[in-house]
Amino acid sequence: MGAGDGPRVVSMDFTLTPEQELIRASAHELCVRELVPHVRAWDEAEELPRSLVATLAEAGFLAAALPEELGGGGLDSVSYCLLCEELGKADSSVRGIVSVSNGLFGKTVARWGSDEQKQVLLPRLASGEGLGCYALTEPGCGSDAAALATRAERDGDGWLLTGSKVFITLGSWAETAIVFARAGGDGPKGISAFLVPTDSPGFAARPMKGKLGLRAQDTAELSLDGVRIPASALLGAEGEGFKVAMSALDNGRISLAAGCVGIAQGCLDASVSYAKEREAFGKPIAGFQLVQQLLAEMHVETEAARLLTWRAAALADAGKPYTVDAAAAKWYASEAAVRAANAAVQVLGGYGYVDDYPVAKYLRDARVTTLYEGTSQIQTLIVGRALTGESAFT
Question: Any idea which residues carry the catalytic annotation?
């Protein structure tokens, strides 16, 4: 959807193929077997075991969206959404490993990287030998990404990077980071993207603990103190960093929306199960009208979020513009996940407020999804700009 084009109708068939149904079933089975039994312990420990990387790699999850010729699974975007939905339903902290390393990092390198960069990095991502992270957000720069302050200065035939990043998923696990830095003047055109080995001298990562949600997921603050990288580390052309960043977020928002659909579906499943078993006034609470209203609203919003997500994914697969559709899907799905989790706590009552049941964690994990990869307010402005042709960003 281009600026001023207004809403458009695109005919899409959302009937899943047998292959896609198999992908969903396989992902569900692995999540139930390998993740769900341990989610509470990981959340309480605020840490995931590193051995999970090998588990995800063996299942093909870390290769899912990468090109087949470079060791990837070559999944279409809708199939990738099915995978992310199942992971989101099981544990959003684990979903973050796949979405960031395979998606934000891997798909971005696949699109913008040189042949050498792709040959070196992508097979390692696919095998789980080396994860990647996406370092855009800074302590003083979130929604206004074009105002980032990290500097890239020429140093002979290379670059010196100095600055800091914050809230970086996989920041202390990743082998390579896509770091966005100002190599030119002010504004978007002064930004370039660089592939930075995290073991470089001057590069430091500090894990961040005490988060409200995604407690087990590796989230880090990065410090770059004169990190020297060669000219070949430039990802895309000089001055194209903002385009690289925004294209990555277009893809990331689709997979994040799918993860939010998983949260909402998990909340609905838990609520229906509890409402059938819990009795009050001589009958299951599932028989009360107001409980049914909560369940029905959760169901409808989950289905709406799922279809918005699949629509954006289908447009991406068809090679059509999908920036606005990805923004709409991420916006609606993240807010729907929060509403579903809040309603689930209401259905479960006091039991929804304790860790013996999954909905309290769903609520904590869902809340941040309205913030990262573009807040709900930013998504609103992206959609508004497309509808009106007027930008509220400048």
Answer: 373
Mean pLDDT of the chain: 95
**pLDDT (tens digit, 9 = 90+) per residue, 107-159?**
999 999 999 999 999 999 999 999 999 999 999 998 999 999 999 999 999 99
Q: Report whether 196 contacts 234 (CB < 8 A).
A: no
Confidence check: pLDDT of 65 > 70: yes
Q: How many CB atoms lie under 10 A from the CB of residue 7?
A: 10
Are 96 and 215 within 8 A, CB to CB? no
Amino acid letter, 283: K
Asked if 165 and 135 count as a contact pair (C-beta separation under 8 A), the reply is: yes
> What percentage of the chain exceeds 90 in pLDDT?
95
Q: How far apart are CA 206 and CA 54, in angstroms?
A: 23
